[in-house]
UniProtKB/TrEMBL annotation:
Domain of life of the organism encoding this protein: Eukaryota
Protein name as it appears in the record: Uncharacterized protein
Amino acid sequence: MSIPQELYPSQDDPSHIEDFIEFLVNSGRWQEAAERLARVLNDDTFYSTKGKTKHRLWLELCDLLTQHDVVSGLNADAIIRGAIRKSTDDEFGRLWTALAYYYVRRGLLEKARDVLEEGMTTVATDRDFSVIFNACSRFEESMLLLKMEEVIGEDEQGEDEVDRLSVTKIQRKLKRFWLSDDKDVELTKAQLEHLLDRRPELVNSVLLRQDPHNVEQWHRG
């Protein structure tokens, strides 16, 4: 798609830069949109003609980095963590999970798990903690399902379609999965169980970050 000449930002008149970035986003040109937005954020003289704050633009850049695999050349981890440091209380959970999702999309699952853990042990509101904990629970459940599919998938080789859809056979496969001695599967199950068991402790830590002088919460911890 060609770019209308009137949308090209001019050095003498930078007021069109936001329209230009919006055009790039709507055209699916994520890479260029992210690069242009990053330049805007690094320009101390920039002011938004659309009334957007720098913080709002930070969040838009974070969305570009986490939702589109083609965006490269920018330090997404540093950018998103920068947004976290500048965020208001109701955005911490969203940004921590966005950073974890960034690593999930790139196949760096252990890094994603570390990010979620860091978020859970850092936020100081019940709402943010719930957002991250729920994301972490879904992450571990998804990992467990993947391991289950691997075990069942290996056993299905050579079977025809009708046989694979047999309720009895599926139940038998599920039973074999849960009784499996596969160390990788057992580790994944243990990680999910450990997360759920830790919830009261993690919630207590959130309350202590809200009020470090709460003696009752220290005793509960």
